[in-house]
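Supplementary Text 2. Reproducibility record for the structural model of the 312-residue chain.

All settings were left at their defaults, and a single model was retained for analysis rather than an ensemble. We include the record here because the model underlies the residue-level annotations in Supplementary Table 4.
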Amino acid sequence: MVEKSRHSSPIQHGFPHLEMVRQSVTALFRRLSADGVRSYDTSFAPADAAFRPSDDLYLGAHRVASSMVRALRLPDARIVVGFRAMEEAATVELTAGPEYFVEVNDRFRVHRRDLAAALAHEVTHVLLHRLDLRFPTTEANEILTDTAAAYLGAGWLLLDAYREDELTHQKLGYLTPEEFGYVLAKRGRLLGEDLSAWFTSPQAYEAYVRGRALADQDLRRAPLAAADRPARRRYLRDRRAGGAAPGQGAAYRFEEHGRGGGSAGSTECGGGGGLRVSFPCPVCEQRLRLPAYGGAVRARCGLCHTVLECDT
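Retained model, structure tokens:
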């Protein structure tokens, strides 16, 4: 896992990996199923991440790692934690198991506050390895790992490890702080969870708020019925264009039914011919396809089972 410190390059902000993050969310739902994702309904508790001053380093690391294994539903996996001088925050050796060796940067011997965050990323690597869920490139797999950690309840620790002020300059993981906030807000909307009070880092909380704002915008994308007036006007203009490419930044696409076929894994709702609009589900990002000019319609995503109020 990558680590940014005051001596490394500046911390990246914004949403440069957003499309890959969204693909990662869809991949999780496809691999685990809607019920499987919802079974991770309890986030990793702050008490399980805490180190007391009197804790033995190795016993404490084993306790935190064992808690992380349980939180990520890997009851038959064992994590052995070691420490050494290294450039990365942590690495894991992926084998057939059941024992996995995680090496952690020596600085966590002293700075134990963020050890659980480093372990969250590495134990999620083990989970994805066992699920046989991977993307083609190393960078994509690391983004998938951070996204999965956050969406399944452990990755809030990675965001809380972000600190950026006059004295401290630190970030763990591959996602930007705002992207972590975005994924955590997506999880919170799905499971009715609010992590606002859990962040100990003020900068992490601010990034969470920025990410949550973007996640809220996903719920107001046309043709969802909750779309705001400007988005609705743009949608109507694009629809009148007879299926032309939508305006910049729009997530929906128009197509003639039967002309190009459906995209892989998309959800088709309704029969008949004519113009169709496809758009991403605001929960799992799988594309849905509905008849345009259908008016007010209720659609059920076939992947995450969310019922969506739409106006096409």
